[in-house]
Amino acid sequence: MTLSEHLREWLGAWPPSRAFEVVGTVRRAQPGWDGNVHPALGVGSPEGAVLSVAPEHAAAVTAAARGAVITDVTGLREVPALVGYGTRAWFTATYRWSTGPAALPDAGVWVPAGQAPEWLHPFGGEALVALDQETGVHLAGVGVKRHDRFGHELSVVTAPAARGRGLARRLVAQAARRVLDEGAVPTYMHATGNLASAAVAVAAGFPDRGWTAFGVTER
């Protein structure tokens, strides 16, 4: 179980063979974790980046991305239209993973996603939720995007009234331990300017290694 195995499965190639590599893979024309098509996805490290698209779009995207670097996505903003999703936007995010989650105490219980708050329903499988012990009200939760057998991405939300208690970091660390136990790598993405999410990630054991995720938005 390695991050490289996940990225090869998810993107179609890893590590990159050049500073910015465009690859064609049928994965970008197939439904993803949520049942929707994710037509362009990429990950960049300090050593290089891979952007994956459906095979029929690889040549056009390669031409548009010629000379691209992750810190300047000006040319890449053409990609949504080139892959047939011109109404969607281009995104960039901080990309993290962990092989040693923080040793924080558990904060939640695993339940079927359909029995969790509505925002967790699309994740399927089981979701991790923190409950108020007196009222049973949901305070926070983690959904798992099961991209493939090697990589599972964690998403966390805390109810406004429950913020500031450290629930998010404890839930993320707890979920990451389970993902590792299942033989996959836990990953975590957030908008670069989302300092609150960045703080949760660091506290849960997901350091910033200078990696970036990018691509066409989900909707």
Model description:
The protein has 219 residues and is α+β, with helices and mostly antiparallel strands. It folds into 2 domains: 94 residues, no CATH class; 99 residues, Aminopeptidase. It is built from 5 helices and 10 strands. Strands 1-3-2-10-4-9-8-7-6-5 form a 10-stranded mixed β-sheet. Helix 4 crosses helix 5. The chain is elongated and about 60 Å long.
Low-confidence stretches: none
Number of separate helices: 5
Order of helices and strands: HEEEHHEEEEEHEHE
Q: What is the total number of structural domains?
A: 2
Share in β-strands: 25-35%
CATH architecture of the largest domain: 3-Layer(aba) Sandwich
Structural class: alpha+beta
Helix content: 10-25%
Shape descriptor = elongated
CATH topology of the largest domain: Aminopeptidase
Task: Output the CATH class name of the largest domain.
Answer: Alpha Beta
User: Main β-sheet, in a few words?
Assistant: 10 strands, mixed
Protein name: GNAT family N-acetyltransferase
InterPro entries: Acyl_CoA_acyltransferase, GNAT_dom
Pfam families: Acetyltransf_1
Organism: Nonomuraea typhae
